[in-house]
Every structure is written in C-alpha cells, then in structure tokens.
Amino acid sequence: MAAAKTSYKFTFGPWNISTGRDPFGPEVRKELAFAAKLREYKKLGFDGVQFHDDDAVSPDLIDGDPAAIEKAATKMKKILDGEGLFCEFVAPRLWEHPKTIDGGYTSNSVSDRKYAIERSKRAIDIANVLGTKDIVLWLAREGTYIREAKDPMASIGRIVDAVNAMLDYDKTIRILGEMKPNEPMDQAYLPTPGHWLGLTYRTNEPSRVGVLIESAHSILAGLDPSDDMAYVLWHGKLWSVHLNDQNGLKYDQDKVFGSVDLRRAFNTVWVLERGGFNGCVGLDVKAMRSTKPGDQTKHLSNSRQMFLRMLEVARSVDAEKVEAFRAERDYEGLEMYVLQKLMGK
Q1: Is the pLDDT of residue 147 over 50?
Q2: pLDDT confidence band for 6 (50 / 70 / 90)
Q3: pTM (two decimals)
Q4: How confident is the model at residue 2 (pLDDT cuts 50, 70, 90)?
C-alpha cells in the first residue's frame, strides 16, 4: 500500500471532445476550436493535456522546417501556461500519414521507416518545448493484415531499433508504450502491455522505457485492466493510464469509466491506489454519438467523477478485514464485503 494518499492529476486529449464521427457515419456535432477545448479543461477539473505531435503543431507544419515547428510549439506552450495547464506527453501520429500505410517502424520500405523515426524525433523536439519528457507510442499500424506480409521477428527488432534511436536522440526523455491487440490492424506485433514490457528490457536503456495502459485495450485482449496494471506496477514501469470502459470484445468504444462494469472500475482504482501509482490519471473517452453539442464534455466530467468515487470506496476498504477474509479463505465473504462497499453500505 502507498505510504501516503496520492493526490492525482487528471488529463485528457483534445480529441476527446469530438464531432461524433465514427466508421459508420459522419459528424453529428460541429468541431470545437482547439483554443475553446483548452478553455474547458480547468472548468472540468483537469490539470493537463495529452498531445499528438500535430495537435501541438499544425499538421501542415509537422513535416516542415524545424524552426517553424519550434515556433508553433512555443506558441502552444504560452497558451498552456495562460490556461494554467501542463503537457503530459507528446505522441507522434504515425498511423495516418501516407508514408506509414504499411506501419511506421515495421514498414517493408526503408524510406518509410526512416520517415517514422525522423517524425518521432520531431515529436521529441515538440515535447521539449512544451515542457514534458514523456513520449507515448501507440503502435497502431505496427502489425499486419495478413501474417505473411512482414517478417515478424525482423519487425520486433525494428521496433527496438526505433526506440533506441529515440533514446539516443535525447538522453532525458522517457518512452511509454500504449499497446492494443487490434484495430486498425488485424494483428499487432505487441498486442498487450506484457508484450511491450518484455521488449523494454531489450532496449539500450530499459530504465527510460515504460508503459501506458488503457482500460479498453486490456479488455479487448480479454484481460482485466487491473491485472495488467498490477503486473506493470510490480515492474515499476506504469507511468500513465488511460481510463475508460468497454462493452465486450467489440471495436474500441472508449466509454465513460465505470459505465459498463463498476467492479472492474473499483479494482482498477484499488490497484492504482495500493500500488502507489504516481502518474497522471488520463482519460480516453468518447461522447456518445447521440450526445447534444451542449453536453459534449459530460463524458469527461462523469469519468473523473467516477474515478474519484471509486477512490473513496477503495480508501474505505478495511485492509485488516480483507486480510482476515483471505486468511480464512472466505472469498464469498470477501466478495460480499466488496459488493456492499460498491452499494454504499
């Protein structure tokens, strides 16, 4: 158990205030200007912002002159400072560019792999300007649609090479892997946090490579997020989380945290609290497509409220009672104790 109660900081990415577009239908809400999104953070009780590289810098600049990139990032830093916000991390968006259609780091094309690494270095430059040392890698297209399309062993080596190139480029950054078993690729090479965790120890500096776990991604792999988080906490490598919920093994739904499974949400928070997690509580949640424009931030405030409520429940659990149930192997009694806590009794 953590020596003292953690004071958690909350973050989300600007993409979480969205237009309601999905693979099956177009926008149903007007796009909110980026500056207007930033003004919502403090109102909703959030402290920091998650960035893709082309959130912080205009997409038409991202492949351009380094001086122009730095100037744009400096402007964004001033905006953040003015709003009293910090940048949690920067993630290179390597899944939408034409040069990463076959993956970035694992592409069969030498020039495309070079592009992915160079763009990752630009993301590091942006992160330095924004005042963060954390770089998040969602390896969205580092996989295959058919297994014969790439050499899987060579592909794992290429991911390690890319991580090492970033570690060598800046000796002060940390790299956080955010793994997902599928979508958009049929099969990812590193589908779970455990797969990524194993890879971290083969990099040049394992102490600077850690993990970001998203609830829905663990659920999509048929795993419980709290188990994934506990395992990575044991290694001392859980540096951030994305909390949400997921209704079964479907597409990535990014539902409000705790909206599907309260017990699962409780165990997630209980593990984070007992494990001494000291990273940011990040959210990656989408408003329902039927949501009215005036309510398009409720899913964020609701998720934060759910975390704080589960935190109250977790902190109310009597550790001695839990140990007594365990000692007697009275798991029926323990289960009812937890259920009563969740019912407010």
Answers
A1: yes
A2: confident
A3: 0.96
A4: very low
Active site residue 299: no
DSSP state of 140: T
Rounded CA separation 290/34 (Å): 22
User: Could you tell me if residue 324 is inside a domain?
Assistant: yes
Residue 159 has pLDDT above 60, yes or no: yes
Residue 253 forms part of a structural domain: yes
Catalytic-labelled residue, pool 52, 217, 242, 299: 52
User: Percentage of the chain surpassing pLDDT 90?
Assistant: 95
Q: Are strands 187-188 and 143-144 parallel, antiparallel or unpaired?
A: antiparallel
Q: How far is CA 174 from CA 44, 56, 189, in A?
A: 28, 19, 21
- What per-residue confidence (pLDDT) applies to 5? 79
Catalytically annotated residue among 55, 112, 134, 252: 55
SS3 39: helix
Cα–Cα distance, 97 to 94 (Å, whole number): 6
Query: Can you tell me the distance from the alpha carbon of 313 to that of 267, in angstroms, rounded to the nearest whole number?
Result: 10
- Hey, is 85 helix, strand or coil? coil
Structure tokens at 274: 């007992």
Domains held by the chain: number: 1
Q: Of 197, 214, 130, 188, whose CA–CA distance to 163 is shortest?
A: 197
* 5 within some domain: no
Task: Determine whether 161 is an active site residue.
Answer: no
CB 253 within 8 A of CB 216: yes
Residue 4 lies in a domain: no
**φ, ψ at 221 (rounded to 5°):** -90, 5
Return the exposure string of 285-298: e unless at least 16 CB atoms fall within 10 Å of the residue's CB, then b: bbbeeebeeeebbb
CA proximity to 213, closest of 282, 298, 127:
282
Q: How far apart are CA 210 and CA 218, in angstroms?
A: 16
Mean pLDDT, the chain, as a whole number?
96
Strand partners, 48: 11, 86
Between CA 340 and CA 98 the distance in angstroms is 53
CATH classification of the domain holding 262: 3.20.20.150
Q: What is the pLDDT of residues 31-56, one digit of tens each?
A: 999 999 999 999 999 999 999 999 99
pLDDT of residue 282: 98
Domain range for 137 is 10-342
